[in-house]
DNA sequence: AGATGAGGTTAACGATTGTTAACCTCCTAG
DNA sequence: CTAGGAGGTTAACAATCGTTAACCTCATCT
């Protein structure tokens, strides 16, 4: 597990942003949590905004790339949907801070970063929407989008609860998500 | 619709907090959006923190009071759960900004306010948990809590999507929530 | 051996923030 | 009629913020 300083900064910053919000964290806080101090961050990033931007881009890329791969190797739509559910649950349980900032901090991005992150997020959602619509002919595109967003909300609730073991939480969320997507 | 200045401040502040986060909004922003300017807010609240605190307390009280009343007038557990689902959906669709700040700004409260809000939120969750457990004997308390939190996440996803009409969104969310709670 | 660049440091800046102070209007109760 | 409080205003404050500048310290390469 070779962690570069850049990754360390992105990781600790994401955790702090998730706890206190983007504007609630100072560059001194981030540096201090990394063992360095304040302005040293500018050796790795263009500014505080850039840290958030790179973080959100990285998250969106990871979600999209794995989503693409898992659906590509699935043989049926049922398998594809199951793979998407498993993947999203795995990510949400493994990286609660990243899930939190991805869903709440995108308003603090600059115009360029927002466009890029938005495009990646939309691509990821589209994978879900396409898969769901192959199994649910009764849903038009906007309806399917709403259903998928609601499913994300269900799975992404993990950071707010997490009182039972990770494995039982994973299977519980999986069952609920499948049921909700069929309703 | 008699709206006192105090309510107006709470309302507009909640909207701004939902959009940009607590630390992303200045007292000047809040006052300006109310047609008054900055320091005038201190005639109605003790400070910026106090605005957030009163807002969150009000939201939690509304959710709890109506949750209590609707379950009290229900004759069966099935009816009670349906009433809770309907109420939460009605609130989330009608006041997306309040839902957003209630679930994400609680970390910015002072110790006293946090305790008070937390107690109200727990009481509301407990109504749900008790009702769910009467219908789902297989769930112990922590499991039921996780299931309820996931259902909140599903319903609270409304502010992030909202592309279809409010009535079809309401029925769609209701169906999904019921299915998820039975899974 | 010596130049170099990567990755730190502290000091200082201008801007913005929450908050207080001092002052000005009205509306209204006695 | 008039004292006073409720609800505004602007000016000014100390603190904190993101950012830049200037400087230091070593590995590493020629």
Automatic annotation (TrEMBL), chains A, B:
<protein>
    <submittedName>
        <fullName>TetR/AcrR family transcriptional regulator</fullName>
    </submittedName>
</protein>
<dbReference type="GO" id="GO:0045892">
    <property type="term" value="P:negative regulation of DNA-templated transcription"/>
</dbReference>
<dbReference type="InterPro" id="IPR023772">
    <property type="entry name" value="DNA-bd_HTH_TetR-type_CS"/>
</dbReference>
<dbReference type="InterPro" id="IPR036271">
    <property type="entry name" value="Tet_transcr_reg_TetR-rel_C_sf"/>
</dbReference>
<dbReference type="InterPro" id="IPR001647">
    <property type="entry name" value="HTH_TetR"/>
</dbReference>
<dbReference type="InterPro" id="IPR041490">
    <property type="entry name" value="KstR2_TetR_C"/>
</dbReference>
<feature type="domain" description="HTH tetR-type">
    <location>
        <begin position="3"/>
        <end position="63"/>
    </location>
</feature>
<keyword id="KW-0804">Transcription</keyword>
<feature type="DNA-binding region" description="H-T-H motif">
    <location>
        <begin position="26"/>
        <end position="45"/>
    </location>
</feature>
<keyword id="KW-0238">DNA-binding</keyword>
<dbReference type="GO" id="GO:0000976">
    <property type="term" value="F:transcription cis-regulatory region binding"/>
</dbReference>
<dbReference type="InterPro" id="IPR009057">
    <property type="entry name" value="Homeodomain-like_sf"/>
</dbReference>
<dbReference type="GO" id="GO:0003700">
    <property type="term" value="F:DNA-binding transcription factor activity"/>
</dbReference>
<keyword id="KW-0805">Transcription regulation</keyword>
<dbReference type="Pfam" id="PF00440">
    <property type="entry name" value="TetR_N"/>
</dbReference>
<dbReference type="InterPro" id="IPR050109">
    <property type="entry name" value="HTH-type_TetR-like_transc_reg"/>
</dbReference>
<dbReference type="Pfam" id="PF17932">
    <property type="entry name" value="TetR_C_24"/>
</dbReference>
